[in-house]
Amino acid sequence: MRERSGRPTRPGHAGAPARRDPAEPVLAIEDLTVTIGTRRGPARAVAGVDWSVRAGQTLALVGESGSGKSMTVLAATGLAPRAARVTGRVRLLGEELTVLPEPRRRRLRGRHVGFVFQDPMTSLNPVLTVGRQVSEGCEEHLGMTRRQARERAVELLDLVGIPSPRRRADAYPHQFSGGMRQRVVIAMALSCEPDLLIADEPTTALDVTTQAQIVELVADLRRRLGTAVVWITHDLGVVAGVADTVAVMYGGRIVEQGPVDAVFAAPSHPYTRALLAARPDPAHRGRELPAIQGAPPSPLDLPAGCAFWPRCPVRGDARCEHELPPLVPVAPGHRVRTFYPGREDA
Amino acid sequence: MARFVLRRLLQSVVVLLGVTLVVFLLLQLVPGDPVRVALGTRFDQQTYDALRERSGLDRPLVAQYVGYVGHALTGDLGVSFRSGQPVTTIVLERLPATLSLAVTAVLLALLVAFPLGVLSAVRSGSVLDHAARVFSQFGVSVPDFWMGIMGILLFAGVLGWLPPSGYVALTEDPAGWASHVLLPAAAVGLVTASILTRFIRSSVLEVLSEDYVRTAEAKGLRSRIVVVRHVLRNALIPVVTVVAVQLASLIGGVIVIEVLFAWPGVGRLTYDAVQARDYPVLQGAVLFVAALFLLMNLLVDVLYARLDPRIGVR
């Protein structure tokens, strides 16, 4: 991949907060709660979630489908469905997003946050050329003319490894393979040189070799551009490869969070341990993978105590069933939501 | 593209042949003798036989049909039993009236349905959305002739703003044409507007839930750009079909309204031809409408390929 150069590549930081403290997180959320009104009553998709991510760092949000990981970032950035009620604090580059009027929040989001969604087959507009879809963000946020934005789109397509980008910019999404489409989505996400990249299971819909390429591409871009990354996944293999910190979510809450090495070396929540145990291990080839019995709780009907209690192999005492365990530190920066950190079973 | 159009045109010829056959056979089943109707109550056997022979009605059915199709291929659809004029001339004379009515009705309908459908989808659940749904429910439930009668009573009778019926050619007196076309076009257009409003609303709602709309919102585009560039471009592709089908069916199907408003179009012609058992005119009118329908479908397909890059024209 070639060096990026030239004036059109270097967007002005118009609209960006003036001074950037490197210690200040790019995105910090505190006590984020999302309740979605449904026909069968309110569903609490996310409850009291805190985390932050700094420039050049990758935070992995891990959990099963429905654990609230996608909803957390969508709600934080103002993309939650209309039926959702969001409370808590969200600071993007020091600006409190939750109190901003939607037009201002929209501009901040488009200018400073890039999104890569799960399914590249559906996240691109079928009737617009990929060049147009990459360039429109630059026009909107960087004040480029249509021609400048198009040049930038070609550069970005080149940057993410799309061959003959000038020609391919005029092609439509259906003329690309899944992996190439996801590269287009990444080019789109990077178009305004965002401070934060949110990757919502970006490899789930792709085949294994393409997955590895996309993971490597994002890691490389993060290293070179210093972007903060929030990587949502249920693939613990990816987490180990790309993340600095990890937050494991279950039933809308964080159950364990900390530096990725610490969590992998000493998983302290029974759910994290179960997830790690369910990974395929080449040393145990041919043996059946241990699965977690039962299903995750419905956000319409969450248990009063620990959300994992119905499936938990530990079940220390009656408190687990009736009382919500607090998130307690077990090591510096490593916190876990259980009354029995580290205990294997009862 | 040229090959695609050519192939579709050839297919259309086959369909039109089918249409002639069906119409031809149906007319055989219709009770009533066109020669008797043409001659009135007082005639002798000699005149009857002569007219029957001149019209070709004494020949076997197959011969009649083959003769008809043969002539039709050269643009000769026969002569009217009643007036003796060539059918092609008669139908072509009536076409401008019908076309101008149908097009005006569809334009009026779009003028209402497009903003209403889009807004009620974008603000679904709002007061406007509920009003739009009531409107379209009303529109599809109320027959157009009743709307026509009410329109005449109110705007021509009570208020006296518009003429109750009649026709002025657009080419002769545009203002006169406009004042005459407004009531019948509004009466027909209301139904069309209701159908289109519903269709546009559901099409836009469907696209609004697509992933790529969320992608567009994630980019921080203004909501107007999201709706116009990302939602409408996709949502309106199926709407094109419905509009074309509505237009085509209006060209062939505004019989009652044309009769009610004394509008000298193809619908009125068809009605009169049925009354008079004027088979050649009836056949000709039906054939024309069918041909227009096919042409409209072809246009839609060509337009589709232009609007949706995924559809390759082979």
What does this entry look like structurally?
The complex is a heterodimer of chains A (346) and B (314). Chain A has 346 residues and is α/β, with parallel strands linked by helices. Chain A contains eleven helices and twelve strands. The relative contact order of chain A is 0.14. Residues 1-19 of chain A have low confidence and may be disordered. Chain B starts with a helix and ends in a 7-residue tail after the last helix. Chain B is 77% helix and 0% strand. The A-B interface holds A 77, 79, 103, 106-111, 113, 115, 117, 119, 122-128, 136-137, 140-141, 172, 174, 185, 188 and B 210-212, 214-222, 225, 229-230, 233-234, 237, 307-310.
Give structural attributes:
heterodimer; A: 346 residues; alpha/beta; 8-stranded mixed beta sheet; 4-stranded antiparallel beta sheet; B: 314 residues; mainly alpha; MetI-like fold; 13 helices
Spell out the blueprint of helices and strands.
The complex is a heterodimer of chains A (346) and B (314).
Chain A: E1 27-38, E2 41-53, E3 58-62, H1 69-76, E4 84-92, E5 95-96, H2 102-112, E6 113-116, H3 130-142, H4 146-159, H5 165-168, H6 178-189, E7 196-200, H7 208-225, E8 228-233, H8 236-242, E9 245-250, E10 253-259, H9 260-265, H10 270-277, H11 318-322, E11 327-331, E12 334-337
Parallel strand pairs in A: 3-8, 3-9, 6-7, 7-8
Antiparallel strand pairs in A: 1-2, 1-4, 4-5, 9-10, 10-12, 11-12
Chain B: H1 2-29, H2 34-39, H3 45-55, H4 61-73, H5 87-122, H6 127-141, H7 144-158, H8 174-208, H9 211-218, H10 223-253, H11 255-260, H12 266-275, H13 279-307
